TrEMBL record:
InterPro entries: Glyco_hydro_28, Pectin_lyas_fold, Pectin_lyase_fold/virulence. One of its GO terms (molecular function) is galacturan 1,4-alpha-galacturonidase activity. It catalyses: [(1->4)-alpha-D-galacturonosyl](n) + H2O = alpha-D-galacturonate + [(1->4)-alpha-D-galacturonosyl](n-1). It comes from Pseudovirgaria hyperparasitica. Belongs to the glycosyl hydrolase 28 family. This is galacturonan 1,4-alpha-galacturonidase. It comes from the Eukaryota. Residues 31-60 are annotated as: Disordered.
Amino acid sequence: MKLLSLLSVGISAAYALSISSATPAGASIEYPRTTVENRNNGHGKDKDKDKDKWGNHKEHRRRVVKIRASKSDSDDISSDFLWAIKKANHGGLLHLEKGKTYVIGKKLDLSFLNDVYVKLDGEIKFTDDLDYWQANNFYYPFQKSITFWVWGGRDIRIYGTGTINGNGQKWYDGFAGQEILDPGNTFYRPILFLTDNATNVDVEGIKFLNSPCWTTFLVRTKDVTFDRVRIDAFSTNISALPKNTDGFDSYNVDGFNVFNTEVNVGDDCFSPKPNTTNIHVENLWCNGTHGVSMGSIGQYPGVKDYISNAYIKNVTLLNGQNGARLKAWAGPNVGYGYISNVTYEDVHIENTDNPIVLDQCYFNINETVCAASPSRVNITDVRFINVYGSSSGKEGKVVAELKCSPGAECTGIHLEKINITSPVGSPSEIVCDNITGDIGVDCIPSSEAS
């Protein structure tokens, strides 16, 4: 499968929401006051004090656009929102006010943005009209992804104290018992926040709640930062828990940063996917997740994938399936590639099934198939430094399992200051298979693990 076909998206005129230029009822635009200081900006010693890091005006120098709030959960203000963000584009600010809810019930193409602030202090809430969203969405072939909206362009700042609510319960109920990667699956669930062809995106302070599927997906994006963000996914139905509600995913991204963030979901906390490079994660808290994962990569036949230059520091991983993880596909019809130059440092892990894991038989590939068609993803220069805490004991005494594929090369794997206990007993065990070179700590083959 060609890379372009994996990334193609149908932002078509047939379904994209269109609006008139008329001002919606209840909308307003407020312009900043003109002062001598403003008029002379750029000529004094403080010429840059009103500029953000991209060289654009800060909040107080921007025109402010407001729209009416929704009167009920069925009061769709999609057209008002699109009108407002067009008015705020090129140097303005869209303000969604505290205590107000703004219901989005139509797909939105926001791929045209250039220097825009969105101050979200209220709540953006998507309708849970499953029939509409199944038929009207933006589709990405990579793992059959769809989304409510696409954000694109450059210099986009979304910040505030508010919430983007995916209203996911009906999606969780409808998907119960299914698998996202099942070839027969046709029940696609929207991603809550997606960028495509975007440069310079900052998301600060807001909360993402109950995404139907992945919470964020960054595609063909350069320099994106999340700071002081909270991600939660909860279900009121114990038989239909949130599934595939990853915190962060990416595809073809250069410059992916996450700081000071909390994630409480039922899948990967942070999981850069193919062709992601220059990753920096610091001060990340994850509860009940599948870990901070590099990958999965190597899924599609004939496609080369890579992940490189990742630094993950000061991470807490609680009550999860995995902790620090590398994952790649194996099987008869998969791709190839590499993961290189990855550092996990100062990682606190508690009650986690697999605290450290290198998995090259990803997605339930059985041992026979994996041995016959091993992964061709090379893994080089990976460091785990100061990883401490406890496993759940599910894997016995094993607290780290590094199993390299016989079809790939795994070199420069280094573990240092590993202090992870198991409730099953001590001493804890570290497993390594097919790893080239000294990993820095004592390890045993999987055949000897207890």
